[in-house]
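Onboarding guide, step 5: your first structure request.
Type a short instruction followed by the sequence, for example:

Predict the 3D structure of this protein.
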Amino acid sequence: MTLFKLNNFEEIDFNTWEEKLKKDLRGLPEEGNLIKTNDFENLNFKSYSHSSQVNDSIIRGRRNKTNDWGIEFSSENIDPKSNNKKLLTALNSGATALRIDVSGKTLVDLKEILKDVVVDAITLFIYVKNQEQLKEISKYLNSKNIFFAISSNIEELQFSSKSNFLSSYDYFAQGANSATEIAFLLFKIQQIFEHGIEKNVSKDVIFNSLHFELGISDNYFIQIAKNRVFRQLANLVISQYNQDLTNKDIFIRSRVGFINKSLQDPHTNLLRQTTEVMSAAISGADAILCEPFDKFSLNGRSDFSERMALNISLILKHESYLDKVSDSTGGAYSVENLCDALADNAWSLFLELSSFELEKEVNDKLNHEIEISKLKKIENFKSGKNILIGINKYQLKEKNDNSWDKKRLPESYLILENEI
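The system replies with structure tokens like these:
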């Protein structure tokens, strides 16, 4: 019996392959079929490729054996005793990471908040008021799994371990596209390294002080590409300061947003949050924060929405096993082409931001980019070009008594349900 041999096939060059694809369209337009576009993200990329064009140098995620992530729970800014009860309930429900804000509290309050919490067994993310509070807490909590966030300008930055939190989430929540988020974070990395070097801080120390956060929203593949591209470009920027830091791990949080959430058709949110957490997990996020969809509502977050937000990660881990496969989209032609297109956009904007001499010029440029993408997103949903069930299509006839709370919701945040 003669075995079937793959090498009996003739090799086909790229041009021949491309012509065959176009022929198989049978009159359908290339755009939308072979060429994918996204005007909100300003992306245009091929959904196909050829072995002669595969880029083997791309970073394939950060881990080889696992794709695990921290399931983060964010508590409300309530009294310490109630806060502690919420945190313990979340941990018993499957959370493996906690996010708390003690910027307006004392060390005594923190001890009450963390009562019976085994800090060494989880990842802890703490918002603090100033460097003095950070140092005080660091002495009390001696754990390697603690990250800090502090509001301070570049001149006040300190470089203790995991103390410099760089987040593009606020820009994302205002309507920024992925390239703007990435470019902003790259610019901040450059700014912090330059400042640290001026202060004679070791480059390793600067690197170890950094951790990052990006927003996650509705476009599944673009959200996967965003984290992959940021990890790749952040590595490129950091390696310019120290080649020894090439391919070194950076810690990325993904935070699910509210732009596309609905209070009038609340059951759709579970589906949206699920695909968003999926895209964050597949992209290699180290921790994922999926908050209750009704966090900014008049009625406030419910126990049910809190539990559902946690359950999404639990199901994706323990039933779908997304934590077992590292960089599962690596090598997928469409995703790799998408990553290349997004990387080009983000890098171009980063270079433009780096060319400005004044901080005001940087901020003006970022605000301009955000305003353009925000208006484009609103226009696409108002026109029906993009669809959100329950918001601009198949709205429920009967309205419930819940709505977005202007006091809880930051004024600059974009909520499509309020715009349409």
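Each response can be followed by summary notes, for example: The two ends are 67 Å apart (CA to CA).
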